[in-house]
Amino acid sequence: MAAARLAGTFVITPPRSSSSLFRRSLVARHLHSQSFSPVPIERNSLPQLHRKPIANVHRHHRTPQRLHSTKNMSAQADHPALLIPGPIEFDDAVLQSMSHYSESHVGAPFVNTFGETLGMLRKLFQTTDAASQPFVLSGSGTLGWDQVAANLTEPGDEVLVLHTGYFADSFADCFEAYGVKATQLKAPIGDRPQLDEIEKALKEKDYKLITVTHTDTSTGVLSEIESLSKLVHKVSPNTLVVVDGVCSVGCEEIRFDDWSIDCVLTATQKAIGAPAGLSIVMASGRAIERFQSRKTPPAAYFASWKNWLPIMKNYEAKKPSYFATPSPQLIHALHTALTQILSRPLSERFQLHREASDKVKKAVTELGLKQLASKRENQANGMTAIYLPEGMAPPDVLPSLLKKGVIFAGGLHKEIATKYIRFGHMGVSITDPNRDDVDRALKALKDGLAEVGYKAPN
């Protein structure tokens, strides 16, 4: 509980060149409305209360010599580095965009911003198919489960849920709430269902859809999507392929069109790098057709695509529309985060996460520690779930890490929650070359374990 309370207080980040890009794009978007007088948010207009002298913040950066004056420094208050599997650290420009003045959710400036955001999501998911459809709703990643269950299944349907941890159990529970029977195909902790097992299951029953958690946040297990999708399309072509990408979108490659995925759900607060509060879904044309041909109306109101599909189409076409009020400030934050992500090739972003992951996992092994995902092909690139030494529990280690300026998460898998901790390494902590979050975290872990009596192998 103490760790949960602390999780909301958290690292100084250097400014990115994208902050000026953000200001320029903000002006450009608002110029779409002739009746609007653009007022860009300038860093220098922010309150000076939390600005720190360079001497107080250089420990957070690899190259402090780049910071020449206080006006170029982060506006965030000093805080421990939040290195859990989400929420993650945020870039200054993303947080600044949250301070956007109030505006009409059906006015041209905001509609333009929302439309651009939906278009950028297509690039993030790597889809150019006009039949695919992005949805952005106010809510957490969990709302994505409801969207899938309410719109792509009907009462009495059968679905196959591939189980790699806690979140498969929860997705299955969501289906059951809608009168859908969820069959789970489980693997041992730290592993994932194998293709031959999946093929056997698909041949035994007619499943409306199959779900897979790309990265299960409870175990750090990464599932292989491309080969799975090929198998499903070959063995059970009418089965929709649904990916829970809450902890993977933005740090693991997802090629929506090339891999013939039907639906990916995610949220803003993990590798995308924006504050929590938006549920994001990308649906294929085939998924939309399945929704439109259903025999019964969706057993939901807010999550119903009957209500949201025309709204999303209108927003993307830059046309004002209304069903329920979106969060303009969160949409601005998402727009800024996506602008930053897409400012470089996605391949570079994914490579940076792979390199950081390799570094973390090498250091963990050198400490004599084991991961829940013992096989390299099962290990996520955005997080690492680490078994603690025998007889040690998260409360023995996490407070020491906090004192050293980093925050890890405790275990989540109900069977082994007291035996491991979770280290999130994604987003700005990885992509910003001026940050040394990972290095400090690894040193804190080594020193923290030593302080409680653990002796690492020589």
Automatic annotation (TrEMBL):
Any Gene Ontology biological process: glycine biosynthetic process, by transamination of glyoxylate
Domain Aminotransferase class V, residue spans: 96-413
Keyword Cytoplasm belongs to the record: no
Signal peptide (UniProt feature, chain positions): none
Keyword terms: Aminotransferase, Pyridoxal phosphate, Transferase
Family matches, as PROSITE patterns: AA_TRANSFER_CLASS_5 (PS00595)
GO cellular component terms attached to this protein's record: peroxisome
InterPro entries xref list: Aminotrans_V_dom, Aminotrans_V_PyrdxlP_BS, PyrdxlP-dep_Trfase, PyrdxlP-dep_Trfase_major, PyrdxlP-dep_Trfase_small
One Gene Ontology molecular-function label: alanine-glyoxylate transaminase activity
Class of this enzyme: transferase
Cofactor(s) required, per the database record: pyridoxal 5'-phosphate
EC number: 2.6.1.44
Family stated for the protein in its record: Belongs to the class-V pyridoxal-phosphate-dependent aminotransferase family.
Name of the featured protein: alanine--glyoxylate transaminase
